[in-house]
Specification:
Length: 141
């Protein structure tokens, strides 16, 4: 056990977060995301909501200050009437730790391509649709 580290962060996830370098990306994937199809490394976080995991990760994880696409959400497919209210939760967590950061959006298949290149994919238990996030790691100052 460690102090100051959320119990939601498994030893495997902590190791991955630590091993990632500047510019590496990690995907926090909802339960519907094809994690094993796209992930080079897949970390299971079954049963953990994505917003809670994001809130546990961001105090430890500097976002890339040189890339404005350091926090990316998957866009809603054109024509789909679904409104991802979870994005409001994500943006609130983001602002809690990084007031200047902005959430960006990318088209579904472009998101998949970016996920293929990610350092790791965390398969969460999040049931909301369009609840996937890409985080790009920055440097510790």
């Amino acid at each position: 056990m460690l102090t100051g580290i959320s119990h939601l962060i498994s030893p495997e996830l902590l190791m991955v977060l630590s091993a990632m370098g500047h510019g590496d990306e990690i995907v926090l994937a909802d339960a519907n995301f094809p994690s094993d199809t796209f992930g080079q490394r897949v970390i299971r976080a079954d049963g953990i909501p994505c917003a809670a995991l994001l809130d546990a990760i961001l105090p430890l994880f500097p976002l890339d200050q040189y890339d404005d696409s350091n926090f990316v959400l998957m866009e809603v497919v054109p024509g789909d009437p679904y409104k991802p209210v979870i994005w409001d939760e994500y943006k609130a967590v983001l602002k809690k730790y990084n007031k200047e950061a902005q959430a960006r959006h990318t088209e579904r298949f472009a998101f998949y391509e970016r996920a293929k290149q990610a350092y790791a994919v965390v398969a969460t238990g999040e049931k909301a649709q369009y609840a996937n996030i890409i985080l790009k790691k920055g440097v510790v100052k």
